[in-house]
């Protein structure tokens, strides 16, 4: 990556070299230094609820079978046959006790262990030739889950997932732990957009400023109870651990009234009260903030909103989880799931699903306009002019680095991290600082996996 | 052995009240008046959609329409399903479609301003009688060509559609549309269009 030190130094002071949103060298650095190390979301446990269920997901160019084995344990296995490297599973999802490679017929249990190797004795001379014992599809170097969200890391020495998430785990509960049963995650809708992956992650992390402009139309058609999109600046943004997000300021009321205001039925509110900590409840009930969009570094985003789903005054909340899967410097595959509490009443699940479809995802009325902007931004970032342009990403800071508004005190905001009312680009900077920290490090050193040679070390 | 798995409104949480009329018998002859009527209806609708004349399009939709485009997923042959469970790209009733149309008519629906140049290429139309005199099932293929701006190449969306047309007074209205999109990962930036 050209001028790496300058690029990273500029990013750290909130001055954004415009080309980072469409630059093949930057993308290569992200591939080698960021996605080779960071925890990355791949699936939710509710997508593979039964023994034998699997989905196939990617981290950059790496395909993984995420499966639930006969004992109910979850695995993420590199989808490459140990013989000639053929993809052993070519479906996106299904249920299987075994995966058989169509090329030469090697087969593997759904926990990855090799079980069939045709003519092992005749062709290889048995174990003395190819040491089959203990061989398995290569597992993701690190695998962990939290609230059912399954993450992998390409780094065998990755820190524990909860340590990586840090205080953002507090906020993740609003989206994925509204009751003891957790959530079910449906989808994903998948589509490709000619936009750089970072733009969506930054937008969801903290861009309350775009809402009144980009999303004017959804307010005009009466999808929201609040008459003016400018309401957005009364909310706060927060950054905690490796994630951050945005909130809306709710009208006066107690916890129950505020949760009812966004459309939660009383039985769900009762479960939230039993599930969440006093601090988690206080953010809503005492402080009057309702979580909305958020991002977890590097490319997982969440959103919570509450539109009308019929020609009445009632609103219905929905939650979506999405991943900005990088394809290249100028292309991203969006995977967007609908998320709903497992214990929610069926009628709520149905209408929440409708609310999601109307607002977000491949056909969502919010998302349509977001993507148009991000594609356009990516196009213009490709040229030499963009290489010499430092965009000002310092909203919320004076030129001498004094903040425009002070952080909320613990008495004003019960959640961890740093929260500030109003428009600002604190969270986008926090996300890009993480990005710079990763790009500055050398790629992790991982010992090669050697197939079929007992006790052998790799040649180096 | 067939890879064909029909789409059913009953599989959607929002499709429980959709019309359930099904095709009966083989497709109608191409000179059958009912086929000619249905084919003409689809051609006229394609022009309405290409012109993005969405008020006219809403007038073609029955009040109880279920407009449903599930997510296609790659599954092994014989798995028994090739659409995602309880999720879709579109799962619409008249209200949600009317909100989508209303949004395009504000001055702030940026994704279609400037508008895409779109053309619905329609083919493989066949019509089936049903047990109802006033209802016909029509199947068609549609290839949507969509060009935006002057930088990026165009995008294509290929789909099969199974429609239920219903005579209501003097006109025929779309009462149900099932869209079998042919890609599991769409290669168009959003569905700010209709199929």
UniProtKB/TrEMBL annotation, chain A:
Domain Rieske: 39-152
Keywords: 2Fe-2S, Aromatic hydrocarbons catabolism, Dioxygenase, Iron, Iron-sulfur, Metal-binding, NAD, Oxidoreductase
Gene Ontology MF terms: 2 iron, 2 sulfur cluster binding; dioxygenase activity; iron ion binding; monooxygenase activity; oxidoreductase activity, acting on paired donors, with incorporation or reduction of molecular oxygen
Region feature Disordered, mapped onto this chain: 441-460
Signal peptide: none
Record organism: Nocardioides agri
Keyword Oxidoreductase applies: yes
Top-level division of the source organism's lineage: Bacteria
Tagged with keyword Metal-binding: yes
Coiled-coil residue spans: none
Protein name as it appears in the record: Rieske 2Fe-2S domain-containing protein
CDD domains: RHO_alpha_C_NDO-like (cd08881)
Family (UniProt): Belongs to the bacterial ring-hydroxylating dioxygenase alpha subunit family.
TrEMBL record, chain B:
GO MF term set: 3-phenylpropionate dioxygenase activity
Keyword Oxidoreductase: yes
Alphabetical GO biological process terms: 3-phenylpropionate catabolic process
Keywords associated with the record: Dioxygenase, Oxidoreductase
CDD domains (UniProt xref): ring_hydroxylating_dioxygenases_beta
SUPFAM superfamilies for this protein: NTF2-like
Any Pfam family matching the protein: Ring_hydroxyl_B
Keyword hit for Iron: no
Family to which this protein belongs: Belongs to the bacterial ring-hydroxylating dioxygenase beta subunit family.
The protein, known as: 3-phenylpropionate/cinnamic acid dioxygenase subunit beta
Originating species: Nocardioides agri
């Amino acid at each position: 990556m050209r001028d790496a030190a300058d690029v990273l130094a500029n990013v750290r002071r909130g001055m954004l070299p415009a080309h980072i949103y469409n630059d093949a060298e930057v993308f290569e650095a992200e591939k080698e230094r960021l996605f080779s190390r960071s925890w990355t979301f791949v699936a939710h446990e509710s997508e593979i609820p039964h023994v034998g269920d699997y989905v196939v997901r990617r981290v950059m160019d790496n395909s993984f079978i995420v499966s639930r084995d006969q004992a109910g344990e979850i695995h993420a296995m590199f989808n490459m046959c140990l013989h000639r490297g053929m993809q052993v599973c070519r479906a996106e999802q299904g249920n299987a006790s075994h995966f058989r490679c169509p090329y030469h017929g090697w087969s593997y249990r759904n926990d990855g262990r090799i079980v069939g190797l045709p003519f092992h004795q005749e062709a290889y001379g048995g174990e003395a030739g190819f040491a089959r014992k203990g061989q398995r599809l290569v597992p993701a170097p690190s695998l962990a889950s939290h609230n059912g969200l399954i993450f992998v890391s390409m780094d065998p020495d990755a820190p524990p997932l909860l340590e990586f998430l840090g205080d953002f785990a507090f906020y993740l509960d609003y989206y994925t732990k509204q009751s003891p049963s957790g959530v079910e995650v449906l989808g994903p809708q998948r589509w490709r957009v000619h936009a750089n992956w970072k733009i969506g992650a930054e937008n969801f992390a903290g861009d309350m400023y775009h809402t009144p402009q980009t999303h004017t139309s959804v307010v005009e058609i009466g999808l929201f109870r609040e008459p003016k999109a400018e309401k957005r600046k009364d909310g706060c943004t927060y950054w905690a651990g490796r994630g951050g997000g945005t909130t809306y300021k709710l009208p006066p009321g107690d916890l129950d009234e505020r949760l009812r205001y966004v459309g939660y039925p009383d039985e769900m509110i009762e479960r939230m009260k039993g599930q969440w900590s006093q601090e988690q409840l206080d953010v809503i009930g005492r402080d009057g903030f309702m979580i909305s969009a958020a991002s977890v570094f590097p490319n997982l985003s969440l959103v919570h909103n509450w539109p009308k789903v019929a020609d009445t005054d009632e609103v219905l909340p929905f939650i979506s989880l999405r991943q900005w899967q990088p394809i290249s410097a100028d292309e991203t595959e969006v995977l967007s799931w609908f998320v709903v509490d497992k214990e929610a009443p069926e009628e709520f699940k149905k209408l929440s699903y409708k609310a999601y479809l109307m607002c977000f995802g491949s056909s969502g009325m919010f998302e349509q306009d977001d993507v148009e902007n991000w594609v356009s931004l990516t196009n213009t970032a490709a040229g030499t002019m963009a290489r010499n342009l430092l965009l000002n990403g310092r909203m919320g800071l004076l030129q001498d680095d004094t903040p425009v508004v002070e952080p909320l005190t613990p008495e004003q905001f019960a959640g961890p991290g740093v929260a500030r009312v109003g428009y600002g680009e604190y969270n986008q900077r926090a996300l890009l600082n993480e990005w710079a920290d990763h790009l500055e490090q050398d790629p992790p050193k991982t010992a090669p996996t050697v197939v079929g040679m007992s006790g052998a070390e790799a040649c180096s | 052995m067939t890879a064909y798995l029909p789409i059913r409104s009953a599989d959607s949480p929002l499709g429980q009240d959709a019309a359930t009329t099904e095709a009966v018998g083989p497709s109608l002859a191409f000179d059958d008046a009912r086929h000619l009527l249905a084919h003409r209806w689809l051609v006229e609708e394609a022009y309405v959609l290409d012109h993005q004349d969405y008020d006219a399009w809403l007038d073609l939709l029955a009040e109880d329409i279920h407009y449903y485009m599930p997510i296609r997923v790659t599954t092994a042959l014989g798995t028994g399903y090739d659409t995602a469970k309880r999720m879709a790209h579109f799962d619409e009733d008249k209200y949600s479609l009317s909100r989508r149309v209303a949004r395009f008519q504000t001055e702030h629906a940026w994704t279609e301003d400037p508008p895409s140049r779109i053309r619905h290429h329609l083919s493989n139309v066949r019509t089936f009688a049903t047990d109802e005199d006033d209802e016909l099932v029509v199947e068609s293929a549609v290839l949507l060509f969509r060009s935006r701006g002057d930088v990026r190449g165009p995008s294509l969306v290929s789909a099969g559609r199974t429609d239920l047309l219903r005579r209501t007074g003097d006109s025929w209205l779309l009462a149900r549309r099932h869209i079998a999109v042919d890609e599991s990962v769409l290669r168009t930036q959003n569905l700010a269009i209709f199929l």
